[in-house]
Design a protein that fits this description.
alpha/beta, 5-stranded mixed sheet, two-stranded antiparallel sheet
Length: 153
Amino acid sequence: MIAVNDKAPDFSLEGDDGKLYRLSEHLGERVLLVFYPGDNTPVCTRQLCEYRDGIESFADLGVSVVGISSDDLESHRDFRSKHDLPFVLLSDQDLDVAKQYGCKGALGMKRAVFLVDEKGLIRYAHIEALALFRRRAEELLEAIRELDREGPP
């Protein structure tokens, strides 16, 4: 199981923008990996739209948001367009990346968020026990601010 201060597992996944996203190419940046069960489901839609609405606050803290689910790229493109999401959605159809991050469940992908710092270390990790719950944007922003106050590990 992945834990805070562990090295984030590297991965390559295709994004809805047609580009290959490799986590290791984002060293020097802070990335919030948002694993979610599925496009156009009620809880996932609320969650990602809330992150969309708070995107300036994430950017002010130097954090890029990246969504990951097992849906295919066409589904991601439709979902992103429909809800005007300002961040890339990655397709993990075989759930290999979800498995690396400990959020592959018996019925698919579990809802989870991981903050990867500039050095590629996990600084925040939360996997939801029940898919009906989600980390609210303000909870994540406060956790990131707290990490900034604490300084590097």
